[in-house]
Structures are given as structure tokens and as C-alpha cells.
Design brief:
Blueprint lengths: L13 H19 L4 H4 L12 H4 L7 H22 L1 H30 L3 H4 L6 H14 L4 E3 L5 E3 L3 H13 L9 H18 L1 E2 L4 E2 L17 H25 L3 E2 L2 E2 L5 H26 L7 H7 L1
Antiparallel strand pairs: 1-2, 3-4, 5-6
Helix pairs in contact: 1-4, 4-5, 4-7, 5-7, 5-9, 7-9, 8-9, 11-12
């Protein structure tokens, strides 16, 4: 399969373009009307009664660099997932990750205020799409874990390490850069919420089950091999909590039969989903390369439908 990085030169999907325009528009609004930040960004002290900022904060970029990075990141990375998940599921993923990320950021800010008594945690506006982008990288890790992406030519990195590569430097930089509280919580929570949703709650139409139980997508897979024996016992708590909630209803519908899982409910099916995703992406990229070169491509519509 060709490198995913090669697809960055091709057009994005309509949904991704629409969200990119929303991000640009949100940035323009807060630049033209600076007071709008108070109503659109997450200001924990004002979230009650302005509860809508839990929804709007994710689509408001206060800095021009953030607006550019978020818009381009969505156009280049989001387009890889939308054809595989479908527009409806992709849209649902964005809304769920965005809303839960800012719920977590709100609770964290309130807790930090009570611990430190620093009012800055209550009144500093928090916003940005980077939490959702972090969640999208988790989706890339799930679907294309072993695909190599160009980092800094000629360096390449496997897609499964992209979420960790985003988080670890961000955490390290936060010890030396003031104002890291404006982006670090949303990056962490966006990654974590995205993983929880994909791991336990995303419904697979082809199997009518939820989540991805494969070992390759376990929480410990975000960490180096040497750290996994420490992480796995802690992560097993989540399995006991969420598996009971998200899979018991499926069992009643035939998720398992006795102690044996039905076809499609084990890690083998998760691996097959990733293979189908890789094939679908390859067909899409092949058709786009032909279109970009001006060649006739009568099978373009069929490839799009299969994706």
C-alpha cells in the first residue's frame, strides 16, 4: 500500500471542508469581535449559565496558528477516516469527542481552582479544535496502525505512534511554556475520549457490535513495550467498567453464545476491519491519482461507492 502521506496532495471531503470553514469563521469572529470569546470559548466561571460554550469552544480558534493547523489537519487527516466510517459516523465522532473533551476540561478547571485557589483556572478562556484532532489521530492508529507516515523527510513513523508523538512533546513543553493550560488538557482528554469511544462504544454496522476489543488497540498500546506491564493492570479497570456497560446489551442480542464469541466479535474481526479500511483507502487514492493526472477513470464512482 502506498504511503498515506502521499494522499495529502489530493482534495478533501465535503464534510471536512465544511468543518474547516467553520474553524476559519470562528477565528474571524473572535478577531473582529474580541468580546465573543467570553460567550463562545469555555470560561469555567461562566459556563453556568452559558452552557453552550461546552459545544462551541471546540470550533473557536483564538490564534491564527491554531486556526491554520486545525483546518489543515482536518482536511488532510480527517479525509482518511470519513470514507471508511461514513459521513454520519464521522460527524458523530467529532461531536462526541468535542463535547466530552470540554466537559472534562471544565471539571478539571473547577477542581484545580479548589485545589490551588488560583482564579485564572476559572476565567482563562479555553478553546480550539486540537482535542478533536487528537481523537482523529487515535482513529488513524486504529485503522492504519502499521502504515508509515512521513514525519521529517526522510524520517517516517508508524501511524500507531502518532497520538503518543503528539502528547509526549506537548506534556514536556508544558513545563517550560506559560499558558499550556489552554491546550494541554484538551489534547489529553481528546486523545483519551477518542480512544474510549472507539474502544467501547462505536457501533460496527457489519457486525452490529460495539468497540474494538483487539489487543493492538488496547490502552497499553499507546506506551512503549517496557511500560506495558505497569499500564495493563490499570487499564484493565476500564475493561471491567465499560465492557459491562457497552457489551452486555450486545450479548443479549447474540454477541456471545455461552463462553464462545460469535463471528465478528473477536480481535480477528478487528484485524479484518483494518484490512478492509486499508483496501478502501488504496482504491480511493488510486482513483484520485488517475483523476489528478487527467487520465480516464471509469471505475472512479464504483471505487467511491465501495469506500
Amino acid at each position: 500500500m502506498s504511503c498515506l502521506g502521499g494522499s495529502f496532495s489530493f482534495g478533501s471531503t465535503q464534510l471536512c471542508k465544511g468543518f474547516a470553514l467553520v474553524l476559519v469563521f470562528g477565528h474571524a469572529v473572535v478577531q473582529i469581535f474580541p468580546s465573543a470569546v467570553t460567550y463562545l470559548a469555555l470560561v469555567p466561571a461562566r459556563t453556568i449559565p452559558f452552557a453552550w460554550n461546552l459545544l462551541t469552544a471546540g470550533y473557536v480558534e483564538q490564534a491564527v496558528v491554531g486556526a491554520i493547523v486545525s483546518a489543515l489537519g482536518l482536511l488532510f487527516i480527517g479525509r482518511l477516516l470519513e470514507p471508511i466510517w461514513g459521513p454520519k459516523e464521522f460527524l458523530k465522532f467529532i461531536f462526541v469527542v468535542n463535547f466530552l473533551t470540554y466537559i472534562c476540561a471544565f471539571v478539571t478547571a473547577i477542581a484545580l481552582y479548589y485545589i490551588t485557589k488560583e482564579e485564572n483556572y476559572l476565567y482563562a478562556p479555553i478553546s480550539g479544535f486540537h482535542g478533536v484532532l487528537a481523537g482523529i489521530l487515535v482513529g488513524i492508529k486504529q485503522i492504519f496502525p502499521d502504515q508509515e507516515l512521513p514525519l521529517i523527510p526522510p524520517l517516517k513513523i508508524k501511524a500507531k505512534w502518532m497520538p503518543s508523538l503528539l502528547l509526549l512533546p506537548s506534556i514536556a513543553v508544558s513545563f517550560f511554556v506559560e499558558g499550556s493550560a489552554s491546550y494541554l488538557p484538551t489534547l489529553i482528554f481528546g486523545t483519551y475520549v477518542g480512544w474510549i469511544y472507539l474502544r467501547y462504544f462505536q457501533r460496527k454496522p457489519e457486525t452490529n457490535i460495539r468497540g474494538d476489543p483487539s489487543d493492538e488497540f488496547a490502552f497499553s498500546s499507546f506506551f512503549p513495550q517496557s511500560m506495558r506491564p505497569i499500564i495493563e493492570p490499570i487499564a484493565s479497570i476500564l475493561d471491567r467498567i465499560f465492557c459491562r456497560r457497552s457489551r452486555v446489551p450486545s450479548e443479549a442480542k447474540g454477541y456471545t453464545l455461552g463462553a464462545a464469541p460469535l463471528p465478528g466479535s473477536d480481535p480477528i474481526e478487528a484485524s479484518r476491519r483494518r484490512e478492509r479500511g486499508a483496501r478502501a483507502l488504496e482504491e480511493r487514492l488510486a482513483s484520485e491519482r488517475l483523476t489528478a493526472s487527467g487520465a480516464e477513470d471509469p471505475s472512479h464512482e464504483d471505487a467511491e461507492e465501495r469506500v
